[in-house]
Amino acid sequence: MFATQQDHHFDVASIRKDFPILARQIGDKPLVYLDNAASSQMPVQVMDAFAQYHSGYHSNVHRGVHTLSQEATDAFEKVRFKVQRFIGARSEREIVYTSGATDSINLIAQAYGRTFLEKGDEILISNMEHHANIVPWHMLAKEKNLVIRVIPITDEGTLDMDAFDRMLSKNTKVVAVNHVSNALGTINPIAEISRKAHAVGAITVIDGAQAVPHMNVNVSEADCDFYVFSAHKMMGPTGTGVLYGKIEHLEAMPPYRGGGDMILSVSFDTGITYNEVPQKFEAGTPGIAQVIMMGKAIDYMLDIGRDKIQLYENELLEYATNRMRQIDGIRIIGTAPQKASVLSFVLDGIHPHDIGTILDFHGVAVRSGHHCAQPVMERYGIPATTRASFAFYNTRDEVDALVKAIHEVKEVLG
Question: Best exposed site among 46, 48, 134, 270 by fewest CB in 10 Å?
Fold first, then answer.
């Protein structure tokens, strides 16, 4: 296995022991997992929570008076309070469980957008968005005759804030941008964006899927109206995520889905009374075990220290960027001054899919393609990139392995 960098501030070697998959071999090569922007790996502490729930207190939540149901409900709801503190929300009632960031954005588009947007209203979306923060708004715009306007990005991959200022008007009703770009790594100034949006009466929807795993997030300080993220990008399970919404918006929005647990009463004679926020938006049996696992993932990150995670990952990204720039024929896509954990690149004359295939032969797992961000690829005139994305369990030796494997790619295909 690779030697690991460690010091008195950040013991990567000990952390890696919590992630069994990192000891895996790919063929005869040690796994170098650099696809964390797609999905991070999971520590044993999070995996254990799944087994503990199912072997100890598996039951449905909110419905039973028996001990197992009470224990499951207590564990399930404690996570809501953890999430509230984790992202700096004012109340745990502002935390809605969803199946992930995509589901959260669809909920906002349907429940808020259908209710409050009218023909001719404008939605501002940046040119660096993941498809999950484009397609739901496109569907809504087509249905309600809304106007989508695209905030341009600069050559280095930052939002063109002067253009944003010019685009804002009384017609702007929603500004939907990511906190961190999954394709470029750019960190966007969401507090400034929210302040400017609010000045014209618009709300902000922030896709935080790539931010929450890598930095401190405080939605109250940013003053965003909605903020979404997924558990599987922050050491948790797939199929679970969070929608944060300001309580005044959530209370004004109608339910998105109907079913059990989102109602107080149902009668064919007197009609339906909906539950309070946040249960109003949580129809049916939720992913109970997955939510509890997400809570354990939050505990794990807090135990390490979010400031330490951010500092270490920033140093690792800087090291990787410097190493990559020494490779002839490489072009890094996304060179914003403020970046997090993503290094996308193209190699002269070599398709990213071929790069990814050969890197895999050397045990290096990266992502090749458009990363569900085709407008970004169009902006730079390329079909795809190869993306290495880092987590706090990655090491400089793994960066060196990536660079060595890229040189192998050049020898074979260059």
Answer: 270
